[in-house]
Amino acid sequence: MTDTRRSVDAETAFGLFFELFRAMPWLVSTGRPVRMDAHAEPEAVAFLLDLSAGKVAGWGAASEAAQDTASALLVDFMGKLRMPGSTFSRSTWQVNEAAAPSRQALEIVAQQLRRAHPLQTRPN
After folding, report:
1. Axis crossing angle, helix 41-52 with helix 64-82, rounded to the nearest 10
2. How many Cβ atoms from other residues are within 10 Å of residue 106's Cβ?
């Protein structure tokens, strides 16, 4: 299968995130308040990168703090896609057009995490 890329703007990305949350509702339904924990952020970022790479299919061994932080990161990013003046609202991302919408959303997540956390990025 060829990896044909397409450009996705913030409005399209917002819709892809809805599809991600529909396909993986557990990402935002931890049963706890969604909040960031700076100490758990490296673990949360590593988890989201692994999820984007298809290395995990559920929370697995992620701590509750990392789960909450990963959920918060996703919700925060989704909100910024629609926030006027946000750099995200004016951004575009390249995704595999043949991938499912939820996978395309995860590609966007991985791209943003690699930009924001370049020292933590692991090869996929």
Report:
1. 70
2. 26
